[in-house]
Amino acid sequence: MPRILITTGDAAEDLEVMYPYQRLLEEGYEVDIAAPTVKKLQFVVHDFVSDFDTYTEKPGHCWPADIALAQVNPADYAAVVVPGGRAPEFLRLNADFQRIITAFFAADKPVAHICHAVVALAPLGVLQGRRTAAWPACEPDVRLAGGTFVDAEAVVDGNMVSARAWNDHPAWMRAFVELLREKAPLKG
């Protein structure tokens, strides 16, 4: 059975980890959550409050990481999901995260990312010449990385599927699951 990797860490957006995790399990895939260390991760919830110019952050669910990034062999996985939140700010500095993500792009395996995940992908050069969605405040990061920002709920560019934020989940995961059915079909 194909395995899917979710790369994340503390302060990831709660819904952007849990929705793809549960949706991919529901579809029948094995899913591993990889983080800098194997521990219980603390996710966060971003929401909008009247009279705030930006979103607020509150504690979300806790969930254990299955594997440390250093232990991940990208060849063991059919695809990767990179959630948003604040975790990407720190993951982009992690050499193992960099190794993993560049390996998925080099092998042209399916990659799903959402919201602020582009801040972790941009320094790797993997957005060059690609169309991608992201949280609108990340548009400059996409442009600086040589990509084209698209303000849409699910953007498919080759084997990369992206979305703006958690309210885009249905379209984002629908497009990603369609890609997985083609590139990493379940047996039987």
From TrEMBL:
CDD domains: GATase1_PfpI_1. Pfam families: DJ-1_PfpI. Residues 3-178 form the DJ-1/PfpI domain. InterPro entries: C56_PfpI-like, Class_I_gatase-like, DJ-1/PfpI. PANTHER family: DJ-1 PROTEIN (PTHR42733), DJ-1_THIJ_PFPI FAMILY PROTEIN (PTHR42733:SF2). Belongs to the peptidase C56 family. This is DJ-1/PfpI family protein. It comes from Streptomyces blastmyceticus.
